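User: Hey, quick favor. My workstation is busy. Could you predict this chain's structure for me?
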Amino acid sequence: LRTTLVRNPAFAPRVRFIVIECGSVTEQPTLDRYIQGENIPRDQLQRVWKATEGTTNGFCDDPPYPAFLATVRDINAKLPADARIRVLCGHPGPTGDLEKTAVSVLRTEVFAKHGKALVIFGSAHFYRNYPTAYLSTMGDDGGLVRLLESEFPGRTLVITPIGPLDPPHGVAGDVAPDFTKFDRAIKSSIRPVMVSLQQPPFRDLSAMEFLGRTVTTCSREHGCLSAFAHSKLTLGQMADAAVYVGTRGFGPAPRP
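Assistant: No problem, here it is.
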């Protein structure tokens, strides 16, 4: 889906920046050289995302992430130098505050230049609201969008993926999402499909039911619970829109 989006001919003229979690600001010069078409040794290029392992737990090594960078590089090769997309690292690397680093990058490299950016981070960074109990544990990481809105109100459009997630191991009171609530309301059979979360019925659906498996908290006193346990937050309070992937999720299609 990300690849299809950036390959659309209308993307580059409108959105000149992409900010990624899977890239350390310490390696920005290397990423710039690669995205602009320079041949970079593989082991050197890997430092761009391997420097994020302290908080990303290695998931940036998964093939879709390096493949996405290769896609942007390929797109840029077909564009004039002054019309190319710049990919910005939004992760502090081994030390630093993740969300404050991303906001700083957006402030100096995008907003100061009156630009727009596609920001690709884990979806929980983008929630517009958080359960009170969970928010109190976040420290300086108060949510990427919440930080942006405090400084640049009205500049963000939050789109979150919704689809099957494996039940979290050992989490009490897990709620299995009922995706028929989406399927009955969506007239098209095409998946994935983007739907507004500011319109019924999606606006009023439970965040616990459809996002509850995305963030888990554990304590000695209560064990492991969804961060949304006992929360009355709705999808409409969490994001502006959702990319609904259907009941099969992002995995491979089943064999006939």
